[in-house]
Sequence to fold (167 residues):
Amino acid sequence: MYSGYSVMYASSDGKTKGEFTVGKGVVLIPYFPDMDFEEKGMKGDVVVAELPAGQYEINSWQVSSGHAIIRPVSPVQVRFTVEPGKKLYLGSFHFEQTRSMGFAVTGVKVGFADQESRDMNVVAKKYPNVASSPRGGTVPQRVAIDSLGGDGSTKISVPFILLTPAK
Fold:
């Protein structure tokens, strides 16, 4: 895996912001981490995080791949509510590579879907205390979205290092 895949969120009051990330955007030595699942030509990790109770929104996504950064071209809006002491299954974000330049990902299509049975099986194995906690919260948009935020816009930064000759 040569890229970092992130989904950004913010609370409705703006006090809490963050991101859920899988992978690393810049690597010098290729690495191939163990993933939580691999099926039908796709693989991924299940992310478990603790957030304060409240209203939230997934408001963006990003792929970092070497010097290329890809972000959505259209607004992203997936609202959800976290209740105190309860777990919430938000959904599955699937990043499909559509373009590349060498090992760098330069184009993606991001989908959002309900893969709760698959993902909660992983949670039960990795985080049994989370799996057994009560369920709560809401995700009003439980319908699948094929292209969350459009195809994305790629920005490639080329670093220039200028050296003066040694005397």
